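#help-structures

NK: newbie question. if I give both the sequence and a SMILES, will the prediction place the ligand too? trying with pyridoxal-5'-phosphate
OV: yes, paste both and it writes out the complex. here, I ran yours:
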Amino acid sequence: MSKRDFIAREKEMAARNYEGRELEYLRQVLTSGKLSSLAGGEFTPKFEKEFAGMVGTRYAVAMNCCMSALHTAVISAGAGAGSEVICDPEYIFAAQAVLYDNAIPVFVDINPVTHNMNPEGIEPAITERTKAIIVTHAWGLPAEVDRIVEIAHRHNLLVIEDCAEAIAATYKGKYVGNWGDIGCFSFQASKQMSLGDGGMATTNSKQLAEKLAQNAGAPTSGSVSYGLHYGYRMTETTAAVGLAQLETLSENIKKLKTNAQYYDEAVAGCKWLRLQRGPDEAVHTFYHWAATFEGEKYGISLDDFKNAIEKADISSIAGYTDMPAYRHPLIKEKLAHAFHCPTYKGNKDNYPVGLCPVAEKVIPRVVIAYMIEPEETAKKEAEKLRQVIEELEKT
Ligand SMILES: Cc1ncc(COP(=O)(O)O)c(C=O)c1O
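OV: that's the protein plus ligand as structure tokens.
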């Protein structure tokens, strides 16, 4: 499948059957006449309570998307102009949130198998300007967040988990979003919980919960403003759908895992597609099934593989963005104020090619597929992938 088709497929994947209590809860919101928690609506606080209960944290703050949760998390970590935040380079989202608050992203390379931040790279990246680490649980697979938290807390840094792709994923029996200081979740349409748009920040700290809520809930007219707060609140209609989706979440995750198994079976025995798995005790919730192409070692070129999956019209792509976050124009061309802010005393040109060699190699070779599809479709798509492997191995 071409990249353009894959993006079109994201739209397809975003359309869901809402077969739970969504309509019932939506009707309750509309008949109450209260479409905002500020107007006394009860769905948003209820959704926050139930979501926190699921993740196991003391608090959760509902917002309009995960970028808002990440932005308010960065502000709440005290990372503004002049400071640095450590990010992983497979995704742009963490770095983007850091730049929203005029701080500078510093990249630490990933592990080639898990696609998650390599804890070994963190300590050398810490400077006196570092305030926090944002760790993404890539494609739904938990990072080694226990090691990352241990290092961060030893250096008085906050850990922000980007759980946008990993709702309900667990590591060592504990949910992601409950390991670090703040967890940030996405309910964007293509995610495991699909609310059109929506986000949530989780934390065990009362102080951080208050800061997150304040930073996300800009004063409405007539209020006094005590800081640069943002209008990131969630609406009651979104919260109503969220509550209904929470009730069916574990069922839905089971379906994603079943679909992922068909893909696992299709690539079993293929030496040149390495599954994104591990570490031990990390339970993946498959926003995407992912593997890394390593065909060059076996005489198969990446272009041949890409051509073969496009020809077979498989609903997977190889290559994701093709570049690490620091090669995106936003960073490469310094399109954010942080790069021009005199308060920052570090090196603003610290993004050379080769900065994160593993990410640079892995990102153009990552093979990803959406798991939100009917089981029959997943079976067929996985079989097509198996046939492509067979064909390429014959030549
Ligand atoms: C890893 C990651 N972080 C953050 C986001 C942003 O989520 P939202 O669209 O809810 O702001 C996404 C969305 O795709 C994501 O995959």
